[in-house]
Amino acid sequence: MDPVIDPLADRLHALAARSFLEQPVPGLAVGVVRDGALAWTGSFGFADRGAGRPIGPDTLFRIASITKSFTATAILQLRDDGRLRLDDPLVGHLPEARAITNPFGPIEEVTIRRLLTHSAGMPIGGVPGGDPWQSDDLSEDRLLAALGRLTLPGRVDSGWRYSNLGYELLGAVVSRLSGEPYARYLERAILEPAGLCSTTFEPTGSLAERIATGYGPGRFADDVAVSPPYDPATIQPDGGLWSSVEDLARWLTLHSRTADDDRRGEDGRLLDGRTLREMQRPAVIANDDWTYAQGFGWGTIRLSGASWLGHTGSLNGYRAIVRFRPAERLGVIALVNGSIRPNTLAHEIATIVLEAHRAAAPEVPASPPAAVPDGWRELLGIYREDDYGFGLRFEARGGKLVLVNEDDPTDRATLVPSGTGSGDVDPDALTFTMVDGDSAGEPVTFLRNAAGRIAAVNVSGTPLFRLAYVER
User: Fold this and answer.
1) What is the Cα 368 distance to its own chain's centre?
2) Are 442 and 432 in contact (CB under 8 A)?
3) Is 447 or 364 the better-scoring residue by pLDDT?
4) Residue-level pLDDT at 223
5) Distance between CA atoms of 234 and 129, rounded to whole angstroms?
6) β-strand partners of 404
7) Angle at 446 between CA 442 and CA 447, to 5 degrees
8) Which of 16, 191, 218, 441 can pair with 224 through a Cys bridge, CB separation 3.0 to 4.6 Å?
9) Of 119, 103, 106, nearest in space to 152 by CA
10) Per-residue pLDDT for 471 more than 50?
11) pLDDT higher than 70, residue 469
12) So what's the pLDDT on residue 116?
């Protein structure tokens, strides 16, 4: 039972049913995630019209470009393991990329980071082939051998240029650094530890019995044709995965565990919380009205004044979308085995559930707050540049030392003693590091006067003087 989503069930079902009936698609599966659980699902139509097999929350759909969030996760795992740096040139890991022609500058300007954010000047499709009637999609070995046919159409950092090819090359980096095929790395390092048992590149056995058949456009008739098959080996890193509403709910939940004490390897966590925040942070503005920005594998879109992370997918008879907000641990999933995007439905549901979530009564703590470590008491208080200038408050909240901007209390950062893990407490420390907020990584040093009392603090090179003391 979910006290926020359950009262919305009838409304969500009616909205999804109306969307399904208005759009000529064979089947639709929808889900809402809240607080780490799949709080509501809706299933409409058929996974296979010929067999009369209905859609369910465990039905497998091609999720197409949502696969890019898995590839970005793999790259960040390798970065955190020390196997690469995000600003490494692509050619440092794939020497074959030296064959690419970059008319705007050296090929070393194409970096891992720029490929992740679609700002490397890559084309949307693959390496141009000789037959315009054939797809440019190639398997990894053939792709690398064909890079000499590629000329970059855009200058790096000149703007957002969505590129499937860029993520194909990132997949090749994963293969090269891990020493195993990309698909095997994903299975071993991501799908298996995350418990994503219904997410795969090639459904076999019982999974094959649960796949939704893809269908082409149904603009003029109900009996739409089955879409042609697609070779997953040619699109693995940028769009090759199958998944279900149930598994994608788990995926969004794992990517919502962004706290400092969320550590890789715990309960299926694939990246530290700090790395997830880095992955999700908007890096490249994608359009003129600033409603979409690109991070690493995830994009941020503005819906009714609220920011939602997510990705869409489109491939041969399948359309998919996921949206989520890690702070509230909310998510929306919509999957279709047809050729019409369910984006409008997903966005309507997202707006409804966020409004209900925000209107719900907050959870009241059942236990008293943690005691303030004795060594912190003399650090707490207000510090300013002068009597009327910029000011900061230092507070002890929830067992953490917190910096708060007096002008904007929503601008805050958690402090940890420098050189320690994010969960450590050192009551004797005077030098700290901000571990979140806009200034994450910046130093904070408290200063004693001649009498031995805390009299000032230096924040990122700027001294502020204490105006109030907290007595012991």
Assistant:
1) 34
2) no
3) 447
4) 73
5) 14
6) 393, 412
7) 135
8) 218
9) 103
10) no
11) no
12) 98
Q: Which two tokens stand for residue 112?
A: 């891992």
CA 13 – CA 460 distance, rounded (Å): 51
The DSSP call for residue 277 is H
Q: Please state the φ and ψ torsions of residue 188, each to the nearest 5 degrees.
A: -75, -45
Q: Is the pLDDT of residue 425 over 80?
A: no
Token pair in block for residue 184: 């095997």
> By the 8 A CB rule, do 246 and 265 touch?
no
Evaluate whether 284 touches 293 at the Cβ level (below 8 Å): yes
Sequential DSSP letters for 67-89? HHHHHHHHHHHHHHTTS--TTSB
Write b or e for each residue in 202-223: b if 16 or more Cβ atoms lie within 10 A of its Cβ, otherwise e. Answer: ebeeebeebbbbbbeebeeeee
pLDDT at 57: 95
pLDDT at residue number 126: 78
In three-state secondary structure terms, 272 is coil
- According to the model, what pLDDT value does residue 309 have? 98
Mean pLDDT throughout 92-112? 97
* Residue 126 CB coordination number (10 Å): 22
Residue type, 315: L
Q: What is residue 232's predicted lDDT score, i.e. its pLDDT?
A: 77
The DSSP-derived string for 307-371 is EEEEEEEEETTEEEEEEEETTTTEEEEEEESSSS--HHHHHHHHHHHHHHHHHSPPPPPSSPPPP
End-to-end CA gap in the chain: 46
Residue 239 CB contacts under 8 Å (≥ 6 apart), including other chains: 62, 64, 65, 67, 68, 164, 313, 315
Edge to edge, what strands does the sheet with 306-315 contain?
Answer: 53-54, 37-48, 27-34, 330-336, 318-325, 306-315, 299-303, 292-294, 284-285
- The CA distance from 210 to 51, in Å, is 12
As a whole-number percent, the residues of the chain with pLDDT over 90 amount to 73
Looking at residue 363, its pLDDT comes to 80
Q: Answer yes or no: are the C-beta atoms of 294 and 163 closer than 8 Å.
A: no
Q: Which of 316, 300, 299, 312 is nearest to 341 (CA)?
A: 312
Please, are residues 296 and 303 in contact by the beta-carbon 8 Å criterion? no
Contact predicate 187/197, CB 8 Å: no
Q: Are 183 and 33 in contact (CB under 8 A)?
A: no
Output the DSSP codes for 297-315. S-EEEEETTEEEEEEEEEE
Given this model, what pLDDT does residue 95 score? 97
Which of the four pLDDT bands, split at 50, 70 and 90, describes residue 132?
low
- In whole angstroms, give the CA distance from residue 141 to residue 244: 29
